[in-house]
Amino acid sequence: MKFYLNLEGVASTLYILLTQGAIFTGLALAFGLDELLIGVTASFPMIAQVFQIFSPVVVEKIPKRRTLVNLFNLLSRLPWALLIVLLAFKDRNPLFFVFVFAVSQIFGALAGNAWTSLVRDLIPESERGRFFGRRNVYISFTSLVFFYVYSLLIDRLKDPLGYQLSIAIGMLGTLISFWSMFKVPEVPLKSSGARAEVSLVFQDKNFMRLCVFYFFWNVVIAFTSPFFTYHLLKNLQVPFSYIGLTGVLNSITAMIFYFFWGRLSDKVGHKSIAVAGVFIVSFIPPMWFFMNTFTYRYLMLADAVVSAIGWSAINLSFLTLPMEVAQSSSSAYFATYAALGGVGGLIGAVAGGATAKLLAGSQFGSDIFPIYGVQLMFLASGILRIFTLKLLTKVRARRYVPLRTLIASTLFLSRDNALTRSNGSNAYDILKVIRKKLEECEEDEKPWRVKRWW
After folding, report:
1. Are residues 233 and 274 in the same domain?
2. How far is CA 205 from the centre of its chain?
3. Which of 54, 110, 118, 318 is the most buried (most CB within 10 A)?
4. Which ranges of the chain have pLDDT less than 50?
5. Which residues contact 14 (CB under 8 A, 6 or more apart)?
6. Contacts of residue 101, Cβ cutoff 8 Å, sequence gap at least 6
């Protein structure tokens, strides 16, 4: 069962790579989207989450979640085949691309909700960190290989053939993922009524705290997310092949840290990993303030490593934390979480797209240190990201080790050389030392925190 869930994730990655990062931005520019349209369209994956609010009703009518995943995935991904045809024409209407992307993200959001609800019942809580850690490693390796393949195809075959072949590979991945899901067992879902379930979710104050954090997080992320690669392609004219190389470095680093975060989250809690991830990625946008034609070769390498460490923690914990905080497997929990995040994404995307269009063409600084208008947005984004941590720390989780305690325990390890063993180094031995250090400050914990679970 786990094998086929992993295979489904790997195959789906061939398609998902088309919808994000440099590949998405390149396609958007190929279809003639301006800054505002790029900003809004890039946020569709988040905006489409709003439609998950309808998912509990659908699941109640058709309680076969595996079937729903396959149906929604096909409706989401097959329209991309239309883009292969449209790319053959020189006169391309940007609205065609926007429409296909919007439809694909709406159905993709519905598929994601059914998938999350099903997997919560299939994978025990005590194994989720390791399972998703390994799954994300396989996905990262696939991203490593195929993002570079896509980059080479686009760089060498140019427009439109490079994009057409990339989309064709993504469609092949869709068929493989469709077959894989049929091998996953179906689990009956007991429902008390969709409306009643949604009402209960809104009465769960702790889960709503998580939703509020996710709302503001998506506002901040959507504000700048599409303009990192836009800055590279439009302002700095960075070759796709170099972007592909840094993508390989990013994927390799992410694979290492998915293992680490996955094992660690089962011990210290998914909230601890989420806090660590948000803290790390808050330093990435300010780095891009210094990204120009003289520095991009070095800063892109640094960004690849730092973002892989931080986003691997976020990608893992943002999926597993709602499972931990939710009181049941009801799709209403995940639909509400995703829908409020989608509203945040819409607000951030509109604000970011309008700001980017206003700043388009603006350039400050000197010839030695040029600053484009969009880089001012990056600086603001870094500050806003760190502020969202306050909202995340208010969420109660069954297991939670504060970030400062994790760091302090790591420092104790470094001082005492506790990571070295006679049979080699084992990074997860840090957990044993953390356990001892936390026991020393047991009495200082806030009342709502779970006492030591080990």
Report:
1. yes
2. 25
3. 110
4. 414, 417-428, 437, 440-454
5. 142, 146, 169, 170, 172, 173, 174, 176
6. 19, 41, 44
Report pLDDT for 290: 92
Q: How many domains does the chain have?
A: 2
Residue 72, token pair as written in the block: 């929604």
Residue 452 lies in a domain: no
Q: Which domain holds residue 323?
A: 2-400
**CA 244/CA 409 separation, integer angstroms:** 37
Please, are residues 201 and 262 in contact by the beta-carbon 8 Å criterion? no
Q: How far apart are CA 248 and CA 305, in angstroms?
A: 10
Q: Decide: 246 and 304 in contact? Cβ < 8 Å.
A: yes
Contacts of 229 (CB under 8 A, 6+ apart): 21, 22, 24, 25, 243
In a domain, 449, yes or no: no
The count of C-alpha atoms lying within 13 angstroms of the C-alpha of 296, restricted to the half-sphere facing its C-beta, is 18
Residues 6+ apart with CB under 8 A from 147: 17, 21, 23, 244, 247, 248, 251
Look at the block and give the residue holding tokens 């290989």: 145
Round to whole Å and give the CA distance between 72 and 44.
16
Are residue 168 and residue 119 in the same domain, yes or no? yes
Same domain for 420 and 367:
no
Return d(Cα 346, Cα 337) in angstroms, integer.
15
Q: What is the model's pLDDT at position 279? A: 93
